[in-house]
Amino acid sequence: MEFLELAKQRSTTRGFTGRAIDEGDLDYILSAARVAPTACNRQPQRIIVVRRPEGILKVGKAYQTFNAPCVLIVCRDARDALVRPFDGKCSADLDIGIVCDHMMLAARERGIGSVLVGLFDPRIIAQEFGLPDYIEPTTLLFLGCPEKGFPSPERHATERKPLEETVMYEGYGEK
Asked: Could you say which of 42, 64, 76, 164 is the most buried, measured as most Cβ atoms within 10 Å of its Cβ?
């Protein structure tokens, strides 16, 4: 499958059947995270795989779980983050975004749905999973079989802005 075709097939899934993910598929998804590029190869991501019902309930205290049979708590290790010296901007959130994108695309390739959530209470996750202070819960990635299937990959024709609205050449506002 060509990359753009795969990218168009990836979609947000907010309802899962609850059926467990095959171990080989989970390993494949996690391997995609491992090979994702990060700033200066620091690899600040730390991924907690949650599949047991009691763990899913813990995640549910911080955010709804959509009946997902697997939740990846993607954290950043503050000790491994690269900080831009000019303004103090930390690269770890960008790195984690890339890591999660790799995992979501790998999941879709295997017929597994995903939804990436940043709007959760990180204090609850840190407390429930006993995270040390230098490990920051950054995002939750819910994985599973979509309850309603996948939407059409052609939806982007109407659901996305045309390139000329988001891309500029040689300066801001230039077409």
From this structure: 76
